[in-house]
Amino acid sequence: MSHPAEPTSPSAQAERSPTLTVRAVLFDMDGTLVDSTAIVEQVWLEFAERYGLDYNEILRTSHGVQAGDTVRRYAPAGADLEALTAELGQMERTRTDGVIALPGAEALLAALPEDAIALVTSADRILADIRMKAAGLSMPSTAVTAEGVTRGKPHPEGYLKAAALLGAEPADVVVFEDAPAGIAAARAAGMRTVVVGDAGGQLEPGMWRIPDYSAVTVTAVKHDDGGHLITLTL
């Protein structure tokens, strides 16, 4: 004979659904807000085949990293690195088939205060605009793209710059990321980090994991200093 399930206690529910209170929310783009996997893999496959490189090794290390850094790492001696990076960038900009938003991403962006969110991506601004539009997502008014930093992920410069632009201290920020390089950048910046998907290895203190944004809820209240207190339930 079956028995009705016992009601879930508030404490048990809290354990399953962590709650974070922050002043600003930062998002990576590819793999975090936008699923562009097929295009990215296709471009790097063509690069690898052209030069006889290890495609799987390139994929393992390129995700979340600026394209120019990957080209410098793997291109053969004598290659025109700037021209090659520009060519790969053009390939990515002209391919949008299959680019979609992750489940719940559009609703979460719409629920967050516009002046408390930023995009921090290794893509350049043109590619970021193209991919966000293709996925049906609004570009945050604050965005730190490849042109805006001197050192790309895993260096924390991009996340620290975005927090400063929003007037938030690193300890008051949460980052949503999916790639090891981006996770390392967020952690180096001293920010709490939500890993989207199954990358990133073991979670450390100050890190959480979600499959997508379907179950994420948000409330935001205006603070006396003009900013916001944002509560996210994962």
What integer value in Å does the Rg equal? 19 Å
Determine the mean pLDDT. 90
User: What overall form do the CA principal axes indicate?
Assistant: elongated
Runs in which pLDDT lies below 50 for 5 or more consecutive residues are 1-14
According to DSSP, the number of beta strands is 11
| Helix proportion range | 25-40%
First and last CA, distance = 35 Å
Number of helices: 9
Strands of the biggest beta sheet: in what spatial order?
A: 6-5-2-7-8-9
- The biggest beta sheet, please? 6 strands, parallel
Task: Find the structural class using helix and strand composition.
Answer: alpha/beta
SSE topology string: HEEEHHHHEHEHEHEHEEEE
Q: How large is the share of residues in beta strands?
A: 15-25%
Keywords:
234 residues; alpha/beta; 11 strands; disordered N terminus
What would you note in describing this structure?
By secondary structure, the chain is of the alpha/beta class. It is built from nine helices and eleven strands. The strands form three sheets. A six-stranded parallel sheet has the order 6-5-2-7-8-9, with helices on one face. The two termini are 35 Å apart.
